[in-house]
Amino acid sequence: MRRIASYTPLLLALSLNLLSSSAHAQATTTASAASMGAAPAEPAQQYHALSAQTRDVAERYLQAYLSRDWPRLFPLMAENIHFADPTAKMVFGDLSQQGKPALMKYFSEVYPYVETHAFKRERSTFAGQHAVFIGESDWSFSLPGHVPVRSKTPLVMTLTVENGRVTDHQEIADFQSYLNGRQQLAAGDKP
Questions:
Q1: Comparing C-alpha atoms, which of 142, 92, 85, 84 is closest to residue 112?
Q2: Contact 177, 187 (CB under 8 A)
Q3: 110-141 per-residue burial string, b: 16 or more CB within 10 A, e: under 16
Q4: For 2-35+42-186, which CATH class?
């Protein structure tokens, strides 16, 4: 029960974000069906089909992202992709990126300092154009000349998929274990 409670603030923040984009998702889906000359499907069928498409793209994106397989990730990104982790701002600064070139540059410059990264998925949901992955990230991070800090971080990741590409990648994480490890290293203790 404590594990679920630790995700409650993270899920609330992401729920508000998803709700704000729901109207856009429905308008885009209806417009896509109309532009293809197809009669709108029954809502349940349309929702199921869109959720299945989202799952396919989101699963491939997640695997490429976690394995840092940038050539495999690149074609799954929309040209105008947006990336953000508002919870990292106090720890690492604003990590927001807009557009495929900026995000790929960010990944190629920053992620080499992520020495290890494993994601233990506890739950996932695919709802229309939205994918939500909930779990724990076991990762270590080290800048050149510094000792790596390893932490296990509760993580919620949301992806929005439109026209077979990820248009939005949001992460919400609890960085307390990382900060504790960094503080222990600064004090000369082993994390």
A1: 142
A2: no
A3: eeeeeeeeebeeeeeebebbbbbbbbbbbbbb
A4: alpha beta
- The burial class, CB within 10 Å (0-12 / 13-18 / 19+), for 61 is buried
Give which of 187, 146, 157 is closest to 7, Cα–Cα.
Answer: 157
- Enter the DSSP assignment of 33: H
Which region holds residue 164: left if phi is over 0, alpha if psi is between -120 and 50, else beta? left
- The H or E element containing residue 183 is helix 176-186
Share of the chain above pLDDT 70, in %: 77
pTM of the shown model: 0.76
**Residue 34 and residue 44: Cα distance in Å, rounded?**
17
Q: How far apart are CA 45 and CA 24, in angstroms?
A: 19
What tokens appear for 54 in the block? Answer: 């989202």
Helix (H) or strand (E) holding 59: helix 43-66
pLDDT tens-digit profile of 70-114? 999 999 999 999 999 999 999 888 999 999 999 999 998 888 778
> Residue 181: what pLDDT?
87
Q: How far apart are the first and last CA of the chain?
A: 27
